[in-house]
Amino acid sequence: MKKPTIVSGIQPTGRLHLGNYLGALKNFVALQDSGEYNCIFFIADFHSLTIDFDPKQKQRQIFDLVNAYLAAGLNPKKSLIFAQSQAPDCAELAWILNTITPIGELERMTQYKDKAKENKENINAGLFTYPALMAADIIMYDAAFVPVGEDQVQHLEFTRMISRKFNNKFGQTFIETKPLLTKTARLMSLNDPEKKMSKSIPNGCLFLDDSPAEIEKKIKTAVTDSGSEVKYDAQNKPGISNLLDIYSALTEKSVSEIENKYKGKNYGQFKSDLAKIAVDALEPFRTNKTSDAKIKSILGAAAKKAQKMSAAKMKEVKNKLGLLN
Predict the structure, then answer these.
(1) Which of 227, 208, 228 is nearest to 218 (CA)?
(2) How far apart are CA 183 and CA 17, in angstroms?
(3) Among 223, 226, 245, which Cα is nearest to 234's?
(4) Does residue 78 have an active-site annotation?
(5) What mean pLDDT do residues 81-103 have?
(6) Does the pTM of the predicted model rise above 0.90?
(7) Cα dihedral value 240, 242, 248, 249, nearest 10
(8) Across residues 168-192, what is the average pLDDT?
(9) Is pLDDT above 90 for 225?
(10) Is 196 a known active-site residue?
(11) Is pLDDT of 182 > 90?
(12) How much is the mean pLDDT over the chain?
């Protein structure tokens, strides 16, 4: 029996942080190693062009992201890892999807509204039509599932809607991809637990390649709350609750287990232990470095396979539309 396909990708826009690992990479590896799926984990470099960037740094960002994929445990023998721009049929399909996408569907996308607020100096058409390219990335490869957190369900619903619309208009062509809801910890900034962990606030962000000394310093100086009880209370104790989320995600122990372990102990002991756990968990990202030559080889081999798959799908799409192949 043929395994269902899973597709997902991350944008190469700079250093990855702990939220990227726990929210995406860790889940990617678990899905790959389950042996239940054909896995495609691409580098979303076309998507990354919607925000300001330095062309001289883009290739480095792509290589660094692939290196993070590999350090996390993704295996090119088990998963297809390539850059979006190496299999550009997705952009052609995105244009076709744009021609049947109602403007109203794009206007209501919350991510566009959020990105437009963040990029007031660069509100480009790519930000607006982003969902069509994301849909193309998914349905191009007949993905049965996409691993998503709750905040990404809207984009997948758009993908399902546009697949349905195309199928109804031109004949059955695309699978209506289903969400594979993944548990993702919503990590907050270490120095401001009211804000999401982000590389734009580097002092409150644990980067995957931070040195042990940097990790220890950031955790030990992380904002906590009045009192000294290690107890989860997101409303009244957001600082220690955020650290408990990190501890739980890295150790896969429940928050209640951790609370019991530190009953009667203070924040200092808890932070010291968490720093050691984080240093150990992120060690592969500091030490497992793959050469650029090897990364190019991995991407090139996977891109050929991806191109073969996308070419077959585009031939089917063009036939349905009455276009020439």
Answers:
(1) 208
(2) 17
(3) 245
(4) no
(5) 97
(6) yes
(7) -160
(8) 91
(9) no
(10) yes
(11) no
(12) 94
Give rounded-to-5 percent helix, strand, coil for the chain.
Answer: 55, 10, 35
Q: Is 199 assigned a catalytic role?
A: yes
**In the β-sheet with 5-10, what is the strand arrangement from edge to edge?**
79-80, 38-43, 5-10, 145-148, 178-181
**Pseudo-torsion of CA 101, 103, 106, 107, nearest 10°?**
-170
Instruction: Report the alpha-carbon distance of residue 139 to residue 161 in Å, rounded.
Output: 12
Q: Catalytic residue among 58, 78, 199, 231, which?
A: 199
Indicate the pairing of strand 178-181 with strand 145-148: parallel
Q: Which one of 115, 237, 271, 313 is the catalytic residue?
A: 115
- Condensed to tens digits (0 to 9), the pLDDT of residues 2-49 reads 899 999 999 999 999 999 999 899 999 999 999 999 999 999 999 999
Which position has the token pair 């990790």?
Answer: 215
End-to-end CA distance of the chain: 31
- Rounded to whole angstroms, the Cα distance separating 100 from 96 reads 7
Whether the CB-CB separation of 317 and 169 falls below 8 Å is answered with no
CA dihedral sign, ordered 37, 21, 188, 252: positive
| Selected catalytic residue, list 78, 178, 196, 231 | 196
- Which residues contact residue 206 at a Cβ distance below 8 angstroms, ignoring those fewer than 6 apart? 17, 18, 190, 197, 215, 218, 219, 246, 278, 282
Choice among 113-117, 194-198, 252-256, 276-280 with the minimum mean pLDDT? 113-117
Strand partners, 39: 6, 79
